[in-house]
Amino acid sequence: MKKPLAALVLALLAAAPALAATKYGKPLSNATPVKVSELMAKPDAYVGKVVKVEGLVTEVCPKRGCWINVAGDKEFQTIRVKVEDGVIVFPLTDKGKKVVAEGTFTKMELTKEQALERAKHHAEETKTKFDPASVTGPQTVYQIMGTGAVVD
Amino acid sequence: MNWRRLNNVLHRDLGYLAAGLTLVYAVSGVAVNHRQDWNPSWKVEAETRTFAPVPVSDREAMTAALVERLALPGPPKSSFRSAPHLVELFYDGWSVKADAAKGTATIERPRGRRVLREANFLHLNEPKGLWTWVADVYAVVLALLAVTGLFVLKGKNGLSGRGKWLTGIGVAIPLLALLVLLWRPGDRGPRGEGESEAGGGGAHRGMGAGRGAAGPSR
Description:
By secondary structure, chain A is of the alpha+beta class. Chain A contains three helices and six strands; from the N terminus they run H-E-H-E-E-E-E-H-E.
């Protein structure tokens, strides 16, 4: 009976390095990161492509850890990296850390109703006040469907 | 040793082996079930402060002024502005969100929920790697526990007696749930999440509504 228990303890110890890792999801490629400002300037040139970005984690999904906002090289700009629920879970303590993330750059055309719903949902998640006037019409939203990330 | 004796020994020892992880998964399962309403792993302690407004200038100057006016413990590790007057300061494990024009700031400190954070970490397989194998073995152990459990007793309390009724109820619950939640007349097979009436000949009731490909993301 002692042998299986010892084997289990050894297995858990072997898993310890993984517990300390700050790598999420699939390993990153060797591709050169694209600047967030470049994505913002010419988004349609990158839609559907796999991109790698690096920057500062400014916000983490407060409920499920299923997205992060990444600030890049220029002020007032962030790009959202959305990950599949449960596949990658970013802890709230990743906020303010440096990240390199990779995934497919996507474009969503939202009607005004969808944009309102999205803004309302975001306000609920982040426990901020929802201002319907902040949505004035249909929106185009760009984000990265993240498959992997490394947080320093 | 006859087969029932072997079955019972297996059921007993697997039960001992699985007890700890079953409790971990049970506690985490309840917590995660309600994650629409709360973050089951983290809570954020928020403290609101006011200060004399800081004029909008460059980020470094505004950061230095905020550190002084909010009596923060030194310069932050990093900072960010989402708008000229909205400054965020990031420290190790906590952050400050300030509206320099209004003179209001919220200090946020995320804290892992005791026990739940660790239970969810394992239950949601955040470690990946070797833990995936441990969890797979545990799933097999659970399946063996279920099967061997059916044959522990014989007679009126065994599977041929009251056991068949209770087992039947246990099997019927998920089947009924699927019938009520997913099935509609005319269905030919299961559909993926978000498939609409127009696209798939029917719509889920109560599951995945309004989450089509073009819908808002979380």
